[in-house]
Amino acid sequence: MPSKPTKPAKKKQQAKPTEHTPYFRTVSDNRRARFDYDIMERVEAGLVLAGTEIKSVRAGKANIRDAFAQVRDGEMWLQNMHIAPWTTGGLWNHAPVHPRRLLLHRDEILKLGRLAGQKGLTIVPLRVYIKGHHAKVEMALAKGRRQYDKRKAIQQRDTDREIARAMRQRE
Asked: How many other CB atoms sit within 10 Å of the CB of residue 145?
């Protein structure tokens, strides 16, 4: 008696990833800016870097504590950002502190430049990070705080901490 032909086994379908999340790593964080300024508006900007600069940034050797941004000739420039020289850079190494161009859309540059021209407002970097293969800067339009505002922020943070501690103990 002939046997029944068997069906070929079906291949298992692999689940397709729904969304690709790019590599993300914070390199430098400007915590002091969050204390010294009231953050009004945030924007993400690309950062134009030389070869040895991006290597140093990827190694985590960037400092934005004293940095600020300004608009010149229709372009946004990041001033006073320190990127340590690459150890094996040799002759082609970069200068640690020099103006670095930021990549933004023209309308964003015009808007931020117009707003930063108002009294008491400035553009400060909040953090530098690697997103995918690119270096990015999170910029913020900010207004400087006065000394009594800073004291009030410290007092508010302390009371929030005490409330949270009391809530945890109660549970």
From this structure: 15
CA dist 59 and 135 (Å) reads 12
What are the structure tokens assigned to 36, written together?
Answer: 């010294």
8 falls within a domain: no
For residue 98, pLDDT over 70 is answered with yes
CA 106 centroid distance within chain = 20
Structural domain contains residue 128:
yes
pLDDT tens figures, 5-61? 666 666 666 655 556 677 889 999 998 888 888 899 999 999 999 889 999 999 999
Which residues, 6+ apart, have CB-to-CB distance to 48 below 8 Å? 100, 101, 102, 103
CB 117 within 8 A of CB 141: no
17 domain-assigned:
no
The CATH number for 49's domain is 2.40.280.10
Neighbours of 144 (CB within 10 A): 12
Residues 6+ apart with CB under 8 A from 63: 28, 81, 82, 83
When divided into structural domains, the chain yields a total of 1
| pTM assigned to the model | 0.73
Amino acid symbol at 75: E
Query: CA-CA distance, 109 to 103, in Å (whole number)?
Result: 9
- Count CA within 13 A, CB hemisphere, residue 162: 6
